[in-house]
Amino acid sequence: MELFYGVLRNLTLLDFWISCLRPSRVDVDLADILRLGLYQLLLAHMPEHAAVYESVELAPKRHRALINAILRSAVRQREALLTRADAQPVWLKMSHPEFLVARWQQNFGADNTASLCSWNNQPPPVYGRINQLKISPEQFLTKNSNTRALPDLPQFVEFNAFPTDALARGECYIQDPSTRLACELLEARPNETILDACAAPGGKTNYIAEMMENRGTIIACDREAERLHVVQENAQRLGVTIVQTVQHDWTGGEVPVEITSVAPFDRVLIDVPCSNTGVMRRRVDVRWRLRADEFERMHEQQIAIVRATLPLLKRGGALVYSTCSLEPEENQMVVQRLLKEMSILRLEREQDCLPFRDGFDGAFVARFLTVS
Using one digit for the tens of pLDDT, what is the confidence trace for 102-113? Predict the structure, then answer.
């Protein structure tokens, strides 16, 4: 796993080194083997003999001499290769799409962009939320010595080892602390009716249920039935009994009666689908599938989802819009457009989490109230 994700995080840099060592074209399968070998030699600091031997063994016999020669050359040129890499632009040496680094530099500045890229290239820690429907933070820390409490966040911990037993008992849920922002700004109370419009896999849903003391009603929606099964399984394990799941795609189709019969809702959470640029540390594939036009496309989809859910919110109710994106098209520009086009909404508060500033995944949250 370390080799796989290490190569994926450093793909552009590894290909740069391959081009330095072998200017002519390299077959795709051989390039993968060279990426694995160079990652071990130049970035993971694994023993040279092991890295070279294991990489050569992966190659077809007719290509082993070539792989061996290139990797042995990398060993001899280690310092020169590292020096050449350090002189390259951030997008290359940090292995991020050039267009994405350019927009981050414009939005956040050069230093913060370099810090963000470095952050994305590190293996993420494992954080969890203590499920206080079953156990108190003090009891949890006593039972689980492999955890570290987070300052100022008593309901969240960092794990030194994967908490298999605690998860099975429903005493915790794997969750980054940045996700708390949307739940806390929603300010759900016991005995209210809540719509979680884009709920899967249910981390925020179940945290809201905890804040409601497991009293009231939460309608948790998603467009995919399989993802709703995950919501149900998580709720059952965590001891949450107030969640009802409903399959619905907010970008089209009539709203199901299972939703309209409960409306109007006291509060609506819309954790919209987004580009995920705030969680690239955890979703390593994101940087390689993003396109420059992605953010405008997501913007339109996000606006459509808000339009579809807003009529279900009671007058004077709260609507919380959230993403795990760092991009203004999906965050501030959505807020500005909602305020311009939907006079019923009044912006009460915005909050964000930036990895290079706050040390957790990226997130954006806006809380609106409807004019009564």
Answer: 999 999 999 999
